[in-house]
Amino acid sequence: MNSLLTSEHRMIFAGIADFLIPNTEGMPSASEVGVQGPILDRVLSLRPDLSEAFFRGLAKSIGHSAADATNALNSGDHEAFGAISLVASAAYYMVPRVRELIGYPGQENRPDPDPDATPPYVANGMLQHVIDRGPIYKPTPK
After folding, report:
1. What pTM value is reported for the model?
2. Three-state DSSP class for residue 1
3. Domains in the chain, number
């Protein structure tokens, strides 16, 4: 865990993240999937360039409701708001449960296609009506 993150930081971040990503239409809120936990440490380790603005935004949010803190950052410190928002959304979409709910399995290794093979869209006849029609175009004016 990131030694700079206190339980207060995590609580403030969870509130702001829930304000940005609420529970709606079958999708869990940010804190319901644990964006304030170890995944937060992971995101910040991957994007250390966001740390200064992220922590500044959390510091400015102490003692305010999540809604008030988020709105104040959005209007008064765009960099901090952007950092917190990016960290929240990145952490949210890194959670396997969220990716499963939206039908995104994550990055997959796909082998390079054979450059000499006939592409499926040609082999399955999908383009045959275009081939049968022949070339059509309008010449450009001179």
Report:
1. 0.75
2. coil
3. 1
Residue 115, token pair as written in the block: 């450059």
Distance CA 142, CA 32 (A): 64
Encoded tokens for 68: 């008030």
Q: Is residue 29 part of a domain?
A: yes
Nearest to 39 by CA among 81, 113, 90, 107: 90
**Tokens at residue 79, please?**
């960099």
Q: Note whether residue 70 is domain-resident.
A: yes
CB atoms within 10 A of CB 15: 20
Q: Distances from the Cα of 111 to the Cαs of 108, 119, 121, in angstroms?
A: 10, 14, 18
pLDDT at 2 over 60: no
| CA atoms of 54 and 64, how far apart (whole Å) | 16
**Residue-wise pLDDT tens digits, 19-75:** 999 999 999 999 999 999 999 999 999 999 999 999 999 999 999 999 999 999 999
* Domain-located, residue 79: yes
Instruction: For residue 93, give both structure tokens.
Output: 């979409």
Q: What are the pLDDT digits (tens) for 95-139?
A: 999 999 999 988 888 788 888 888 887 788 888 888 899 888 888
N- to C-terminal Cα distance for the chain? 68
